[in-house]
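Marked as duplicate of an earlier ticket. Keeping the data here for the record.
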Amino acid sequence: MGDEGSDLSIERGKIPNFVGRSVLDRDLEVRILASHHTLDGSREFPGPYPPGAVMVSTSVKGRHARTGSVVEVNPVEADAWGLAMAPEGFEEFGVILGTPSYFSTGARHYRFVLDAAGGMCAIPATDCEILVAGMR
């Protein structure tokens, strides 16, 4: 959400979402859902992460604006939307998990980690493997 990082003032229990038009297909609505959880003391993702770090999860799915049917968002465009909350220039620190076959919505999924000040943190390879395994 800008050069300085993401706004971490998201209220717990409220999942922020965004609905906008596709850049590539004007008949397509792009829907983005985001959530986050703290990594302090996380056993699932051992880190190392700085105190106050959070893992941000985003998903991007498409819907035809007139019919309401589920439409797949072009993967390149979806990747741009899915990593949009990363500070500019740090998108490569995000993990693109893709579209698991067991989801009927066709949503593509992404993860990245932000420190307490909203700056991007690298996700270690071991945690990336855990994330990818969880999407199979």
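See parent ticket for discussion. Residues 1-14 have pLDDT under 50 and may be disordered.
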